[in-house]
Fold this protein.
Amino acid sequence: MNSGIDGAQPDAGAVRLLSLAVNGQRQQRAVAPDITLLDFLREQLGLTGSKRGCDLGECGCCAVLVDGRPMLSCLLPAADLEHSAITTIEGIAAGTALHPLQQAMIDEGAVQCGYCTPAMVINGVHLFASEPRPDAEAIRTCISATSCRCTGYNRIVQAFERTAERFAEEQP
Amino acid sequence: MNAYRIVGTPQPQIDARDKVTGRARYTDDIRLPNCLHAAILRSPHASARIRAIDTARAIALPGVRAVLTGADFERTFGVLPISKDEPALARERVRYVGEPVAAVAAETAALAAAALALIAVDYLPTTPVLDVRQALRPTDDPLHPELSHDNNLHKQVEQCFGDPEAGFAQASVVFEKRFSFPSVTHAFTEPHAVQVEIDGRGNLTVYSATQVPHYVHLALAQVLDIDEHRVRVIKPHLGGGFGGKSDPFPHEMIAARLALVTGRNVRLRFSREDVFFSHHGRHPTQLTMKLGFHPGRGITALTGDFLIDGGAYGSFGVVTTYYNGVLLQGPYPVPNFAFRCRRMYTNKPMCGAMRGHGGVNPRFASEVLMDMALVQSGLDPCQARIDLIHRENTLTINEFRITSVGLKRGLEEAMRRSDWRDKYGKLPYGKGIGVACGFFISGSALPIHRNRRPASTVRLTLEFDGAVTVYSGAADIGQGSDTVLAMMAAEVLGVDLGQVKVVAADTRLTPVDLGSYSSRVTFMAGNAARNAAIRMRRLLVAAACRLLELPAPEYRAPAPPEDRFRQGGRSPDFDADFLGANPDYDDGFEFADGRIRHLGSGRETGFLAAVHAAIEGPGVLQTVGNYRPPKLGGSFKGAGAGLSPAYSFTAFIVEVSVDPDTGFVKVDKATCAHDCGFALNPLAVRGQIEGCFHMGMGQALMEEVLHDNGAVQNAGFLEYKIPSPFEQPEIDLVPSTSDESEGPFGAKEAGEGPLAPVIPAIANAIFDAVGVRLFELPLRPDRVLAAMRKATAR
Amino acid sequence: MNAPPARFAFERPASLAELVARLARLSADGGDYALAAGATDLMPQIKRGVKTPARLISLNGVPELAGVQARADGSHRLGALTRLADLAGDARLRQHYPALCAAAGRVASPPIRQRASLGGNLLVDNRCIHINQSALNRAVHGTCFKAGGETCPLVKSAVRGRLPQCQARFVSDTAPVLLLLDAVLQLVSPRGERQLPLSQFYRDDGMQRHVLASDEVLVAIELPAADGLRIDYDKLTIRRALDFPSLGVALGVRADSGGTLGELSLALTGIGTHPGCWRFAAAAYDNANAMLDAACAAARESATTYQQDFFPRDYRKRMIDVFIRKAAQRLGVAR
């Protein structure tokens, strides 16, 4: 986004053209300057996998990957993400092949109501990308990003541990 | 050993893949065409008269399509027919901060919000009633003058069984204490949301995040004054409920009215703060309880006086008022029992049903008093509890029929696995172990609306392609009820779980189920699904017999009730075609691997061949199953409260560390014995128990809705503290099952009962650790520390 | 139909020069803007209407604010845009300033730390139960000073305009550690650049919280070599995730040339309008326990607590001593 040093920014308050990549697809959309990434994804792109639980950065359910890092989309002005690469929960599985964490979440009963599940997966995908064999502390820290009221977290921890074991088996 | 192929094996939820990929659609994820956005204006006053509302500027804003006020709703509503005291939009007065006062539908959400700011409400603030003691005082201006009470009493219940005074006289120890509980809230993750689709004939399809589609359906028709058949309620995927979505709500009425007025589709969603305003959480409770105990006789008497803070409206409050008392009738016999419970109206968000409804706070009191009595009597608190738990097939003093009880064996096992005997009273200062028990209903035996219809009905179809579809009104709220219904149908019909589709919680397509509350779904909808599947199986067996040239089997009638319940209870309400709660489907055939095999002759046919043979006549195979609770209970006033066809039992043993410098309590480990009868889906049972522990521990250690001038002060997840993954301990789940003759495949509830004993178990462990008893929740570090300092000072 | 105007306009300057020129212009015009890096503290306040800047100026495109530089003498320059997660996870920094990395790792939640910056954490707004609310809930008591009103629900006698007029409490997790590390802020404005010790940065007021001018930008945090200084940071929260500190204690110990305790230093957060910071030289005390007693006394005397978060005020105050002594134990000092 270019802004002139002369201070002539008549368009700063107006709808602007935003271009970024979402789940590998380039998007160019007109956005209001105050729209959050969450609203952009849910209301403009129709990607409703990212959930709105509080809209204040407290529940963590809206997490997406921004250039590979998990962030809360309800706190991000979309306009600040020019040229970013966004990955939402819809973009995690490779076709029909689930990420090992997604499969583990299913198998271990880590999914109850499912409302926190996308964010749990998003944070987990980042964790395993940066540390394929996270210890218990790293796992709980990662899970603490998202509020879950159903599971008591035990099955989610179990799913993360299973995933870590699986990565360990693949790359001994 | 599990005799079944599918039930009894751990099964992930059938929609888990949709949930991990973001495909699952929750209410606010639906995109209706040409949809208006609605917003609600809320009261800034806890108590005020509404002198005037000026909506002219709002309606004049371009893009605004409708503005509603209380004048647009004549009828009040409420989940219970006996307390329909809530308006969709406040009329004449507001009764809590956050109460809906006006609503707008506009072309965008931002416009709707902007229009709210243009509505001028002229309030005359009045003195609010903010606590129960104040509510007890006489007033000529009660919140609900229609009740003709001279104070803010909503409901008072008094019951007495046996002779409590005589019981206390027989006791060797008597303890009486006052306990205090703040409100806690469900804190489900998905905020309330509703979307309304209207067709050209004015029919409404209401998508709502609700646990009770049927009740919402009825309430919408009544409040909007339209024929019931014009309403259809669909519950999409639901992000948690725990009782907080088990009422019809104002926002559902508002959105539907806006759709009717504008002829447009309408979308409305709550902020997190709105959810706290809506509340319906656990009642703040002040209670005094007295327990008499004798080592040879057990509990000799128990009395309680409960004062519960209902907030502004009724919700489930009348039920809560009863449950505070009657749910003390387990897990131990109480031969002499009396209680009084008064529910008061106050100018705060209303309270209602929350996981463990009505039984949680009294359970804390009774299990702490029990612990005090057992310690005082020199008994081991764990062994003594095992010895006291109800025997099977007994009647309680208030005529609850206790059938299966698997907790004695379960708690014995938990005691072994937790090394109780090596730990209790023997751990170093600051470390402690504690135990507590509880019990809960598997659905209420009586319906909220008096009628003679079944409590749950399931329709089942089998198509030419072998697809089995379960049509059930039950609402999967995240607990996995769709999955357990599918499992039962698959089990009976010998098909893969993937072959069973579930169409649920759609009041146009699915038969009536009363909803997901009081732990009724697995038990009641489960029995209905199983019965429907058994009838379908009989159609296939008949077809197979024709194909295999075998005589049709003769089905045995279900065992008569007196054999199944040797004591207590009355005869189940059999009608001519009633399959009974647990009819045998041992028909001499094996359904497996796509084949139907006659065991006697070894002859077999393909499953699909039998389907095709059976379908020739009717064109579609369709069966219906239902469940009616048996007639239960006494004939005294209020005898119906707490009646259930079966009760679950739970014990928790909890180990804690208490930091003597800070008073912080850390739960190190928990061992749970939960008698859910037969665990239909062990994975789901475990999930429910672990979730109950999380919620119980939250209430025990940190959760509290704070009010300030009547307003919720901590209306968000940053300041309303629910435990993080770091606080949750490992939970060892020990086998504690029973065979419940009334339950589907022997099952009972697992979703609510495990919560209540968590809290007193933690408190009793704190006593073992540092020698102090606390009688007020939450057991915050400052309270623990203050109690420790007081104890040291003595 | 007419869409309502956006809540804020958005700009993203691409260099420090561009940013400063822009601020000069906007300030001259009365400057209704907010600078934002992670925006994790700002966005909730905007959504609740606590803050209503006409313009949000993103710092994320300014390269001069980013990056960590290590110097041969052991000193470091941390760009203000350094994300808390990067700080917490930086193995080299962890060797030099382990407590800073640990404190950064205790802020909020993992995805917030991915976005939130170190500069933002130093500038995180003071909090109070009466301000961090929706407009509806803010009005329940009569709007407070910080929300633009005329009362303080905590201190009924408080007067607008007389310091401290607002008791909203300071909640940065990293500031107390940076104070003990003698951090110096590099600030740039249209008037040029200045270096300001962090110890001179904060003010005793929940509203006018620091001395940063409205057109001034926090560019970087300069850290001298840790030089034998060992710091312990711990925070009082009821759960180990998400929460701001109800109390945060950073305790530093530095050995003298002989290897015995030479200096004890202490900084507090979560209590009071600004972080308290004290130093105790060994020469003035009989022994380490006496230093510790002095630290506890100093902290206790300075602290006035209010009922404005989860823990009762008396308890938070009582925990000051406890946290200092527990930190001392972990550092191997005294009892």
In short: The mean pLDDT of chain C is 94. Chain C touches chain A at residues 5-14, 17-18, 21-22, 25-26, 36, 38-40, 43-44, 46-48, 54-56, 58, 60-61, 85, 108-112, 114-115, 240-242 (CB under 8 Å).
